[in-house]
Give the backbone structure.
Amino acid sequence: MPGVTHDDAPLLADLMPWSVAPPRLGRRWPAAPDAASLKARWDALVKAEGPDREALFEPTRSRTPRSAVTQLPGQSSGTGRLERESGPCPEPVRVLHAPFDEQWLIPDHRLIDAARPELWRVADERQAFAVEQTVAPEASGPVLLVSSVLPLNPPHGPRTGRVRPLYRRPGGQEPNLAPGLREHLAERLGHSPDPVDVLAWILSAARPGSGSAGSGSGSGGIEVPLTADPEVWGEGVELGRRALWLMRRDGERPKLPGGRRPYVRAPLPTLPLELFYDREEEALLLGEGRIAPVPADAWDFQVGGVRVLEAWFARRTEQAEPGTLEAVRPRSWPQSWTSELLELITVLALLAELRPRQSELAVENPITATELRRGAVLPVPEGARRPASVLDHHEEGPEGQFALL
């Protein structure tokens, strides 16, 4: 981006100051691509007794079947020790298991080593979670993704960076933006931008930084050039809004034009174990199954140096150790996975089309970090880096006792 030097573009860690490490499961079996498998795994766990239940649970230093923990905010799972649990499986919820891979999770605090309750408290239909991604050398993938569901730290592959919710309180209240930032932008742009518009601009403009300029957050230095040019701002927001819609996937389903729309050309086998891409035919081959057309840009789309489609397929076909709860999974390829795969191909193809326009976004009239310091927007007050107090009801503590607030 011309017009902005690397050492004076504001940092994402300052523009969206409150951040949380993503939840870490500690065991793989409480998450799966299908909800039915999770309920079967839970049933197998509660039917086992004593040492068998302990082994199936896969204890860690943070969690064992004897751990006493609070209830997850917004969830109705039990709080008694899991060694005595005999009830039904808590209803699974959607989570972002890995980049562009929504899966299901048993929302039970007893199963999760580091659940990050502060994120669960602000997760609702208005929330948008900005998730920092690993920057791989020579990779052109995005450094920032946005999800409408809670993101997890992937069990394999590049670790997810900090999670930055757009709102600090439920119901879309109190934007997680540097105090005074929107007012400063209003003075320079001539209008006060909506919080979603600020996030849209950030999504369009975010880039790997030099790692300098201490923000105190330990974020690793994602930079976000800002502009005072209303026309450039509007273009960046438009591109970012489109990317937000594609990443969140919480509205009308995206579609490619008719001639480019991917279809199943040959039925997928019972459980395909190999994935191959034919560039000449623009076809994705899953065993003997065939999906086409699949644009090369969708196949080549990477996050953190990992090809998204390959990783998505591997997580559904990799072998699990026999006798573990993770081995309880579909014996055949569900139709729902095919539908999800077709939509994922579409999303990646459409996002790839945006990337050249985003990279050409030229900031001719920059708002620098120095300017924000002069305007008293920076440095950010320490309170803005901590979670807001959002407890307006009792949360159940261990063994059914209410947590002290």
Notes: The chain has eleven helices and 18 strands. The first strand starts at residue 31 and ends at 32. The mean pLDDT is 91. The radius of gyration is 22 Å.
